[in-house]
Design goal:
six-stranded parallel beta sheet; 402 residues; 17 strands; Rossmann fold; alpha/beta
């Protein structure tokens, strides 16, 4: 797909309608984690320095359509956004009216306008052409810089792109380049770590990955289901008894494409799921009837790390165990640190994404050492599944007159 980055366009004096994802954690009216805002601002500042006039659109939470609940107003994001951009940010209390258009027209070079929550209007999630046309009036060029929203066919991500010249923002380009390098054209050997609770939630991901990469390490509750399909007792462990056929299909696909599947050889089991619970290490096929598998064991972690040592591309989605509660974070932390070391030493490209994955890497203190960490959730998963994302496809679609 041919997508033009906004960085290749002369933006001086132009109003850029920028779809951002500034859906950040807020407590008592203040942003508590500004990571998304600072990453967005880093890409926008050079455009502002060139004389662009930014009109920023974003959603925030899930307000009920047509109910202007102040708890979901994006006005509270302005202080953090202004600080990150290093300049004042004006505010429009709506995003699709004449007053918003007037405010956008009053912008000078290098100035910024933040518009109210897109999801206050039901036309946003309905991908309503009329609402998209109203948004298009806010500027001269459209810029999608919200990869994390690109899997949604909404008015601000899909319909609007067909109404005006449409471009990709710096963050979106960065994300696409990182994921393409890790999945579509990886430097081999290439290895993925896929964890999480259920095989059923990642069937398409696994099917796509085993056809493209050299090895897939499976952890978390997903690994339990694979072990169960091989006849291992599960005790009280989380597993899906109705997914044996799916496991067999994935194993067949992996064998046909020459992809190695790695499962835990030993596991950490406990009778209680709580911090500091008494636990023991047993072979993967020896879970006691009254116990739960809550992490991969140390022997498994060593085997996984050994496999990563030979990889030049590492793709990670999902923890290897119940990392939120020690001591069941041990395998995830150990393997994450090894992947980070390989990345830091320039021996491997490491790309990770998904909410639990980011939390796990943060807990391990290694996020900064990974080549790229995606904050996208659903969009990252759909990319791993090999799907074409509506927000990306829209940037390539023929344009209509606004």
């Amino acid at each position: 797909m041919q997508i033009t980055p906004i960085t290749e366009v002369d933006v001086a004096g132009k109003r850029l309608v920028v779809r951002a994802d500034l859906n950040v954690p807020v407590e008592e009216g203040r942003v508590t984690d500004a990571t998304r805002i600072t990453r967005f601002a880093a890409g926008m500042k050079p455009l502002l320095d060139q004389g662009a006039r930014l009109v920023i659109l974003t959603h925030f939470g899930r307000p009920k359509p047509n109910e202007l609940d102040p708890a979901f107003s994006v006005d509270k994001l302005r202080p953090a956004l202004a600080e990150a951009l290093g300049r004042p940010v004006a505010f429009s209390d709506n995003c699709a009216t004449d007053s918003a258009v007037l405010l956008s027209q009053q912008l000078g070079d290098g100035q910024v306008l933040l518009c109210e929550n897109l999801r206050y209007n039901p036309g946003e999630t309905a991908n309503d052409p009329a609402f998209a046309a109203a948004l298009a009036r806010l500027g001269d060029l459209y810029v999608n810089d919200a990869f994390s929203c690109a899997h949604r066919a909404h008015a601000s991500t899909a319909a609007i792109a067909g109404l005006m010249p449409a471009y990709a923002g710096p963050l979106l380009i960065e994300e696409m380049n990182a994921l393409t390098a890790a999945l579509e054209a990886p430097e081999r050997p290439s290895v993925a770590l896929v964890g999480g609770a259920k095989v059923s939630s990642k069937i398409a991901v696994l099917k796509n990955l085993v056809g493209k990469l050299d090895a897939v390490i499976i952890g978390g509750g997903m690994a339990n289901t694979f072990l169960y399909a091989r006849g291992c007792p599960m005790g009280k462990s989380l597993h899906e008894v109705d997914q044996i056929a799916t496991v067999r299909e994935i194993e067949t696909l992996a064998e046909a494409s020459g992809c190695e599947l790695l499962l835990p050889e030993d596991v950490v089991v406990a009778r209680e799921f709580k911090a500091g619970a008494a636990c023991e290490i047993v072979p993967a096929d020896a879970c006691p009837a009254d116990a739960m598998i809550l992490d991969a064991g140390p022997q498994s972690a060593e085997a996984f790390m050994a496999r990563l040592n030979h990889a030049h591309t590492i793709l990670w989605n999902g923890p290897l165990g119940a990392f939120e509660i020690p001591p069941f974070d041990a395998a995830t932390v150990a393997v994450a640190k090894q992947a980070a070391t390989l990345s830091h030493e320039g021996r491997a490209v490491t790309v990770a994404g998904g909410g639990d994955t980011v939390a796990a890497l943060n807990a391990a203190g290694v996020t900064q050492d990974f080549t790229y960490v995606s904050t996208a959730g659903g969009a990252f998963l759909e990319w791993l599944e090999g799907k074409t994302l509506p927000g990306i496809a829209a940037l390539c679609a023929p344009k209509q007159a606004a």
